[in-house]
What does this fold into?
Amino acid sequence: MNEFIDVTQIPSDYGGAGPSLAESAGKSFGDDKRQELIILNHLFQLTKKQKTQMYEFTVEKGNPIVLKLYTRCSAGATVELYKGGSDRAVIAVKVSGDEDDDDGKPYSRLIGTCVGPGKYTMKLSGKVPGSFLVLGIMDA
It folds into this structure.
């Protein structure tokens, strides 16, 4: 991850210089002092041979989860989110860096929100190799 994401954006749990997931979960953000909990994290690594990856997760009953993607890959990827065993995506979004910013700077993009209870499958596809970290954040 250190090659693709700024070390300050990686939790110390994973060898980065950022706060641990536990510290982040208990921290207040913004002026409204709301609490945000990271309840989902998954690293997708696309290669020349494997240009698509899937990840299944379960959302328990409760608050909506906001999904964000972090990467340095300027070409980006396509993210699709499916609920249950459906073959119809509830979210389909193309994520990419700025066209004039091709120096590999880390960036993040909002994927969307999913609501529990339910099982979800996330599909990430890209044309070029890259690493993509997906975080699921819930307001506490």
Notes: The chain has one domain: 37-139. The domain at 37-139 is CATH 2.60.120.380 (Jelly Rolls). Strands lie at 28-29, 34-46, 52-59, 65-71, 77-83, 91-95, 107-114, 118-125, 130-139.
